[in-house]
Design goal:
With 141 residues, the chain is an alpha+beta fold. It is built from four helices and five strands. Helix content is 38%, strand content 18%. It has a three-stranded antiparallel β-sheet with strand order 3-4-5, covered by helices on one side. Strands 1-2 form a two-stranded antiparallel ribbon.
Length: 141
């Protein structure tokens, strides 16, 4: 099959990966009709080891549009005309998504605008309104 994927302390075991080669679409002449160069890599998210609860949720959220009904993540690659290069590209995509999921987002503490910044904003809006009002029809009588 394919070798396991390791990202730091996270391990995607071989049993969680399923590789399938299919025919790619698009340009390529006769080659595209004969060779199965596109790679579909299926990753079972439940079998990934070493992800904490938060990282698992972030990963599931990031790939939610590429999940099937059983919770398997579908990663495809048809970047090149070479099947092995496409497999490496698909594995790189998995690594990148896992690395992004491992980053804990910073907590944002909501703040309020200062009174002077609110006043400046309203004054700027009034100036803009006056400029626009001056562009209207003029009564020269």
């Amino acid at each position: 099959m394919t070798a396991p994927i390791r990202v730091g302390a996270v391990l995607v075991p071989e049993k969680a990966l399923e590789v399938k080669a299919v025919r790619a679409s698009g340009p390529g002449g006769q080659n595209v009709n004969k060779v199965s160069s596109k790679v579909e890599l299926r990753v079972n998210l439940a079998l990934i080891e070493g992800l904490d609860e938060g990282a698992q949720d972030r990963l599931r959220q990031a790939v939610r549009n590429r999940l099937d009904a059983s919770g398997t993540w579908l990663v495809t690659s048809s970047r090149t005309r070479d099947q092995l290069l496409n497999l490496e590209d698909a594995r790189d995509k998995v690594i990148q998504e896992i690395e992004k999921a491992l980053i804990v987002p910073k907590h944002r503490t909501p703040t309020r605008a200062t009174r002077s910044s609110q006043r400046r904003r309203v004054e700027a809006k009034k100036r803009t309104g006056e400029i626009k009002k001056g562009r209207g029809k003029q009564d020269w009588s």
